[in-house]
Amino acid sequence: EFVGDSITCGYGNEAKGSDETFDPETENAYLTYASLCARKCFCECATICYSGKGIMRDYSGNTFEPMTELYGRVYPQKKARFATERPADLAVINLGTNDFATGAPDEERFVAGYVNLISQIRRNSPHAPIVILDGPVMNNDWPFKGALDLFRKYRERIIDRCERDGLGPVMPFPLSTQGDLGFGADFHPSTAQHEKNADELARFISEKNLLKKERAD
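The chain above was modelled as a monomer; its predicted structure follows.
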């Protein structure tokens, strides 16, 4: 299970460059790091993602219906929620880029929101390891100086609180930052960047033995 924003949706990943704007024709969820990673791990992939959303606010700073409220809905526009879901064997969260886009989010609210989301995931998937990613877009020069380091500081607190509250195992993993492999629309990751990040994440999952079920040949 992958929970994320436009990066996980595949926003503009098939665009020819960063000067293109969003077009549904260049958004390909099948070629995202999430879908590619799942196939490399011989797993089914479920994605719960919404472009522009974050833990506590969206890309423009609006706090209306962040991912903590949208997670678990049948449709994002309706408040009806799944009564039951098939538990995930592994959950991966790639959120925070939009929260940081308009400046540093309030630490307490961001940490509490992230723990809230993890608690929702944990209720549905009580035994799944949970991985919090560094996304490939945010770095220490964008959206502001030291943004990535600050996100990692907040994430340490999130993981500590999850361990304290019995929500583990929760662990971090850094995806490599985009740039060398071109860009998709509006400076989103290209298909080549998604492929690279999928390789990195699949290798991490294998090395840490996060998917303990053996694949049936």
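Residues 90 and 128 are 5 Å apart (CA to CA).
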